[in-house]
Amino acid sequence: MNTPAKPIDPQQSGQPFTGADAVVAGLKHQGVEMIFGMIGGQIMPVYDALFKDGGIKHIIVGHEQGAAHMAEGYARATGKVGVVLTTSGPGATNLVTGLADAFMDSTPLVAITGQVSSGLLGNDAFQEADMRGITMPITKHNYQINSVEELPEVLAEALFVALSGRPGPVLIDLPRDVAVAPCSRVLAAPSAPTGYKPPYRGHPLQIGRALKVLRTARRPVILAGGGVVSAGAHEELTALAETAGIPVTTSLMGLGALPADHALFLGMPGMHGTGYANLALHQADVILCVGTRLDDRITGKLEAFAPRAALIHVDVDASEIGKNLPCAVPIVGDAKPVLKALAQGAAGWEAKPDYGPWRRQIAGWKRRYPMTYAERPGVLAPQRVVETLGALLPPEAVIVTGVGQHQMYTAQFYPFRRPRTLITSGGLGTMGFGLPAAIGAKLGRPEREVFLIDGDGSFLMTIQELATAVRYRVPVVALILNNSFLGMVRQWQEMFYDQRQAETDLQPPPYAEVARAFGGLGRRVTAQEDLEPALAWARRQAAERRLPVVLDVAVQRDALVLPMVPPGGANAEFIPCPGQKKED
Amino acid sequence: MDRMSPISVLVRNETGVLSRVSGLFARRGFNIHSLAVGETDDPNVSRISVVVAGEPPVIEQVVKQLRRLVSVIKVSDLTDKPRVERGLALIKVKAEPARRGELLQLAAVFRARVDHVDNDCLILEVTGNREKVEAFIDIMRPHGILEMARTGQIAMARGRGPMADYWAGGGPDQPEEEATYNLARTSDPNWDGEQTNAFPEREEK
Fold first, then answer.
1. What are the boundaries of each domain within chain A?
2. The CATH number of domain A204-368, selected from 3.40.50.10470, 3.30.559.30, 3.40.50.1220, 3.40.630.30
3. What pTM, to 2 d.p., does this model score?
4. Burial level of A405, CB count in 10 A (0-12/13-18/19+)?
5. What pLDDT score was predicted for residue B205?
6. 3-class DSSP state for residue A297?
7. Is B178 on the interface with A (CB under 8 A)?
8. Per residue in A196-223, pLDDT tens?
9. B29 and chain A: CB distance < 8 Å anywhere?
């Protein structure tokens, strides 16, 4: 869109090769094809270099937070690094939420922010903000470039750090004088900083111990997290589960690592997890945790979590092991080689342990606490909308969500069958994540259908990115489960605040009309029988007209996300789905 | 009472690195008892010596969180290792001429140096491990301490410790064939003392 008819070769044009040119050349050298960002004063030299080069597609966003979430969606859908470019000051501080989100969910990002010239640093210059200081706690690493000589190495290092080990966001703060300084044409190969050695293979001795523990187990469960997805270890996970016959539950971030229709799959555990996943973890004698932080939404009350279980914990980040719960067999390593080694080990077992009785016990819980929901005539149940979509879309379709009730309905009722098909804000719980992340995902995987399932509260928070979707003709379909409430908070008010609905009654704008005003397509759905035709219409319109489509679906205002473990409660004491009685 | 654990951290000598380390302690609620930073004989590497108060699981987290920082090259927990540990205190104590003799005698017992004398006060300099420095301060207190300045404790393992291997050119970390098991000290044998994993060998990409 902003590519000149003929790329200018800086050598031939007689202009000197600058730090800004080195940024563009370095990114291209490392295979970066797309950048999300917004121009501004101090980053102008880099944008000028992008313009002259013409080799990287740049997406102008409505707000820099949107750029960060788009880069996250792009990275999560493709497994590549997402790159963000903004100016100094407010342009850079607007990235904070996105960087924190990427840090919590281990998403590889590189954010390049403009900065005032080195001579002005620390003088409260116009649009100066200390981005290195601000983002220190929410990035895997960050840099401020002091001289143009170090620029190529820093760039190469930043991409390496973002993608390797436990992935995460990296920020490079680029003062203007460095960007305009003449630079020798060096292209640095990706390299690790001194002392940075992310582990890869787990220790063979520890893997041996883990196999021994698993073999003597009688009630084992595998708890897989986002680390399995980001390591691309889904096949190894399936192989281990099938070889040993161990049931698998996945965290929100791990959904899709094992197909939802797999006989060994238990769904998601934790606060809004399935009753049977929570009971299985509660009764387990061994839990193999892989690539999961065991955060409070999974464990519930820590002391009551899996009281009978010995934990085997596999993580590429050693600090996650033993952080929340004591661990019997720690394995520091990447999920892929470790799960592969475990699967191979289990395949070599002479006398296979018989987990049959355990699987039958779990099957009993599945029959007793199936995932159900309350329906009544005249108004759509939000879960029904998700189920309908799940039955319609192919397995490789990508689902993106915001944060709230709709996110949990999606996790509970959408049948994720492939890794990287769910893109959601897990750790930080960022409302407004959905729309920009969906745009980024679609730009990264244009061949796949990308659906946003959002809430009416979440959608409003980054609605300006509809302009981006229209500008670049990004055909995502946004399905808004509209209950005109900040629903998850309202649910807590109903359950724990004696029904006092403080500031949760949202009267959202007519989203279908808003979408049309932005130049996209929109339709309001209120009747149950209109849902399927509307979904078919949206998919067809998106495919044919290459425009974003908003389906604003009115759903039950008072629906609750169930099952639910009350905050601070023990997982085994979940409130079951409507119509079910909990037995002790 | 929580134990005091001396931890040595080799870091890349770059601006902001102290802020990264101290910010980590503040953010995660780790309790720093003392902190000292200085250059090493490699101008690219600084050594941060930090004494942390905490139970073993907390210290394990401190070590692991430090290792997560990209600027950190090497971390060594010296709690259970034979070590040399030193800190220094300057103490300005009230000393009229009549009391001077007694104070100088006490200083001699602690091998404290006298850095300044006048008719009002003395400045005494004491060097040693934490217990010794604190014992001397306790002895001086009844005499009237006017002013005091202390350095953080620095520590070094006796013998050829893990840090020495770094200087010998062996690089930050060498993979070990067998991890040592010390589950009482840490629940994570792979990470007992030193990083054990070799450079990543991604199979794909």
1. 10-180, 204-368, 382-554
2. 3.40.50.1220
3. 0.92
4. buried
5. 32
6. helix
7. yes
8. 888 999 999 999 999 999 999 999 999 9
9. no
